[in-house]
Write a structure and sequence with these properties.
The complex is a heterodimer. Chain A is 23% helix and 39% strand. By secondary structure, chain A is of the alpha+beta class. Chain A has one domain: Roll (Pnp Oxidase, Chain A). Chain A starts with 8 loop residues before the first strand and ends in a 12-residue tail after the last strand. In chain B, the strands form four sheets. Chain B has a seven-stranded antiparallel β-sheet. Chain B is elongated and about 85 Å long. Chain B folds into three domains: 125 residues, Pnp Oxidase, Chain A (Roll); 146 residues, GAF domain (Beta-Lactamase); 112 residues, Arc Repressor Mutant, subunit A (Orthogonal Bundle). In chain B, strand 5 and strand 6 form a beta hairpin. At the A-B interface, strand 1, strand 2, strand 5, strand 6 and helix 3 of A face strand 1, strand 2, strand 5 and helix 7 of B.
Chain lengths: 146, 462
């Protein structure tokens, strides 16, 4: 849980009726107390097309990874709901985005570049996680995590 | 559609990309990609290294999407793709394989971190992602820095390097002129030249620029590291974003160990710079014969463009011909006679007075010379030095000619293409770096002089 909320590279995948994949970048993730639900925060413009997919085809995938170590996991699950992120959530989103940008410096991407992305306003997408997979690159990538 | 050619910066591998796929039963998947390779105006290639979920999804459903970033601006692009085929040979596969194997050999991952195939995808659409616009058009600080890193590969620059190299009077001067010109014209401040030797399995560094330690005489095995792979494949290799790719490989190594796979313990140290960000290896070829390898390193992420590849290959061919011509010229202009000039007393240096005698040991079995217990040189340069020191001790000779060495049966030089000149240059430079008490000075075309700044004790070991 601490890893997922630590400020990572977050990418969300969905698909449309033609099985055409789509994906967007997200800025923060929060694990709910029941440990089966996630809220993903992404720019509201990025969320629009994704939510159109998710309302019809609720299957989703979220890849969470730390750029400097490539340690990562992939959460698979189903879309529950979406709403505009609250102003009170902004600090959490910005803290995670800041931590992610700091990590990017470790792989040679200067802050001047990484900090130019538009983070706010965000949509908060709530999802139910059903499976968790190892995503650290290598022969074990894609294996279920228990 | 945005032309694929306009995204060349995105294909440098400086910033990771993401691959989105979907299984036949509708479950999406996201994967990180170390590199997306440009193939042509309608196709890209993705590396296939492991049978992972993305690969299984593509087998079921050929649709995919890739998110790319321009490393100069962080502007994001989405490419809608259709899988076409997997290539396991050919220029695209080879270029990707060599880059991946170079990284693997630096991390002891040969055989684990390898390319199984180059997956070729047709690009159906390219869109700039609106809500990730990257840097605004006027961001002078970053953009100036980027502009400075662009390689000035132009015909004019090649003409200029050609002119300067033509003016080098000897092979010795030519080697330094090449590296100096690469800095002055192209801005490459760290470079090294390695030449093929009498040992077919390795190259030896004969000249370097921009490294305090010099490193003349360092050996690289064929097939290891970027230099050894360039020599083996006889193709240029360029790696950008080395730090990120090494981190990626390190993650694979850790994962492989956890899976019970063992990485080999023998890892090849990176040549030169401690943390290079970009490396470029260029084979020096004349009619399919490997003369050597030029290796350039930078601590910045150079943006090599596809069109640069042709210039780099032309440059490699030109340098190879220049080096080979210089070798042939020196050989044909060698004097016929052999001088037997006796030694004149050489004033010992202050250092020599403090250390009046150095011990030179020749190990016959390894053909290797140690000076005061420290490794100096091996193979042919070692045999040459041993012979010179013996003739000096026994007969007082100080003046030698290349021709006499070439005719000396004890050195076992091949009749054709013996590379004697380059081996003498390596020996002289190695002595300058590691044993200044023994000096070899060129005293004319095909002629040199042995100068000793200290007494020398010669010891032959089995």
């Amino acid at each position: 849980m601490a890893f997922i909320e630590s400020g990572l590279s977050i990418n969300v995948g969905s698909r449309d009726s033609e099985l055409e994949p789509d994906g967007v970048v997200a800025w923060a993730a929060r694990v709910h107390d029941d440990r089966t639900q996630l809220t993903i925060y992404l720019h509201k413009q990025a969320a629009e097309a994704m939510v159109r997919n998710l309302r019809v085809h609720p299957e989703f995938a979220v890849l969470l990874e730390r750029p400097t170590t490539h340690r990562g996991c992939q959460v698979k699950g189903r879309f529950i709901s979406t709403r505009p992120a609250k102003p009170s959530e902004r600090a959490v989103v910005e803290r995670q985005a800041e931590s992610f940008c700091a990590d990017l410096e470790g792989i040679g991407i200067p802050r001047a570049l990484s900090s130019c992305a538009e983070i706010w306003p965000c949509a908060a997408i709530q999802m139910r996680a059903t499976e968790l997979f190892e995503q650290t690159p290598g022969p074990g990538a894609g294996e279920p995590l228990r | 559609m945005i032309p694929l050619e306009s995204l060349t910066s995105c294909f440098q591998g400086l910033i990771p990309s993401w691959l989105y796929t979907c299984s036949r039963d509708g479950v999406p998947n996201v994967a990180i990609l170390s590199h997306v390779d440009y193939v042509d105006s309608r196709h890209v290639a993705l590396s296939f290294q492991f049978f992972n979920k993305s690969k299984r999804n593509i087998a079921e459903n050929p649709r995919a999407k890739v998110r790319l970033y321009d490393p100069d601006t962080m502007r994001a692009y989405a490419l809608r793709l259709r899988f076409v085929r997997t290539e396991t040979a050919g220029p695209t596969f080879e270029s990707m394989r060599l880059r991946i194997e170079a990284i693997a050999s630096y991390t002891g991952l040969k055989g684990i971190f390898k390319l199984l195939g180059a997956d070729i995808y047709e690009v159906l659409s390219v869109e700039a992602i609106e809500y990730e616009p990257g840097l605004p058009a006027a961001s002078p600080g970053i953009r100036t820095q980027v502009a400075e890193t662009r390689l000035p590969f132009t015909l004019k620059a090649l003409q200029e390097i050609s002119d300067r190299i033509h003016q080098a009077p000897t092979l010795d001067c030519l080697l330094d002129a090449i590296l100096e010109t690469l800095e002055n014209i192209f801005g490459f401040r760290h470079s090294m030249l390695l030449l093929a030797t009498e040992n077919a399995d390795r190259l030896e560094m004969i000249a370097s620029r921009g490294y305090p330690e010099g490193g003349v005489g360092s050996e690289v095995r064929i097939g290891e590291g970027i230099i050894g792979l360039v020599a083996e494949a006889r193709k240029p290799i360029r790696i950008a974003g080395i730090l990120r790719q090494l981190l990626y490989a390190a993650a694979v190594a850790k994962s492989a160990q956890e899976q019970g796979l063992k990485a080999t313990h023998r890892s090849i140290p990176l040549p030169g710079l401690a943390n290079p960000e970009s490396q470029l290896g260029v084979p020096l070829l004349v009619r399919d014969e490997l003369i050597g390898v030029l290796c350039i390193e930078t601590d910045k992420s150079y943006r090599f463009h596809e069109e640069d590849r042709a210039y780099i290959e032309v440059l490699g061919g030109y340098l190879a011909i220049a080096i080979q011509n210089a070798l042939l010229k020196e050989r044909t202009e060698e004097p016929e006679e052999y001088s037997t000039v006796k030694a004149k007393p050489v004033a010992p240096s202050i250092k020599a007075e403090r250390q009046p005698k150095i011990k030179v040991e020749f190990y016959k079995s390894d053909e290797c010379i140690l000076v005061d217990g420290e490794y100096l040189v091996r193979s042919l340069p070692a045999k040459i030095l041993w012979k010179l020191l013996h003739e000096h001790r026994d007969g007082g000779a100080v003046e030698f000619t290349n021709r006499r060495l070439r005719l000396d049966k004890t050195l076992n030089l091949p009749d054709f293409k013996d590379n004697l000149e380059s081996r003498l240059i390596l020996l002289r430079r190695r002595l300058e770096e590691r044993c200044p008490e023994i000096h070899i000075a060129q005293s004319g075309r095909g002629r040199f002089r042995l100068e000793l700044g200290s007494k020398v004790e010669l010891v032959e070991q089995p």
